[in-house]
């Protein structure tokens, strides 16, 4: 039984959300998928299912413990090696989710006397990692979205009063999850180099999709293997589940000794690791998948009068929450699974449809969605 004061508080909060039209609910998948992050269409690929089954038969359904206890199978090491090789890194460390990686990486690296600088539109998991780092004594600076002049000014101002041994870290999404726009990694690397700052990028929406070999935004922008901390996820383009950080051996050793979300959590199950290994293999071996997803995204953007860009995320700005929800419902009624994204996931007054494109779609479906968007009274 919930004690009465708690019931009162939770009911009040629920009523307030509903009055604002901000109540969230879980809707099962229905209609043509224009909202998942399954960019390469690998999630339902029978080869991933078979790899998962084979891994379960050989190593079991679960790991029974954290990586540092008995939770490590040879598959975990194989996946880390495959990811490091793909990303051009010396080493790699798996995490159970992207959220857990971001939330645990930052407090493991910065504390009292240090600083972390974070793009204003970074993913919620990086935001929480920053808050934990601040709780651990670090200075937290949030710079305007993609504004490197603001970042540099904040770094300089912090340095002027920071202890001499204080170190800085800059964290950014590579491709931003709600807008599909991208950070300028060469410029960020240059800036971080001048200030001795460590750069962490989150390639959740770039891994498997961008660059000649699908390795990510760093590869697309010509800085493959040069970003010191590259986080990515296994549950989006790679069709499985989990996350990883590619870095050098010293950083990996530091993280496996200090990142609490790594140390105190049961290791990824073998079927998940087996599927992810197959996902990495197929992402590299079948480049048509990323070419197809990106071509669909540009086709939809062109149909909506938006400029081409290297991302499979197409935001359709709407503004008012209720209008975004109405549009999404109208499209859903026509068989398109498109979802509205509202504050606080996006800034106030910027509710939108967040449309994603994947290799599993057909060109006729993409064209039909563009047509439906135009006739749904999109302003
Ligand atoms: C999805 C996402 C995450 C979280 O990854 P999970 O493995 O789903 O927990 C982190 N960062 C970004 C940018 C994401 O889009």
Description:
The protein has 379 residues and is an alpha/beta fold. Helices cover 45% and strands 15% of the residues. It contains 14 helices and twelve strands. Strands 2-8-7-6-5-3-4 form a seven-stranded mixed beta sheet, with helices on both faces. α2 runs antiparallel to α11 (270-285) and α12 (288-303) packs parallel to α14 (363-375). The longest helix has 17 residues, at 4-20. The chain is globular. The model has no long low-confidence stretch (mean pLDDT 96). Pyridoxal-5'-phosphate binds next to α4. The site of pyridoxal-5'-phosphate has 14 residues, from α4.
Topology:
Blueprint: H1 4-20, E1 32-33, H2 46-59, H3 74-87, E2 91-95, H4 98-109, E3 115-119, H5 124-135, E4 139-143, H6 148-161, E5 168-173, H7 185-195, E6 198-202, H8 217-220, E7 229-233, E8 243-247, H9 249-258, H10 260-263, H11 270-285, H12 288-303, E9 313-319, H13 321-333, E10 336-337, E11 339-341, E12 351-356, H14 363-375
Parallel strand pairs: 1-10, 3-4, 3-5, 5-6, 6-7
Antiparallel strand pairs: 2-8, 7-8, 9-12, 11-12
Bound molecules: pyridoxal-5'-phosphate.
Summed up, what is this model?
The chain contains 14 helices and twelve strands. With 379 residues, the protein is an alpha/beta fold.
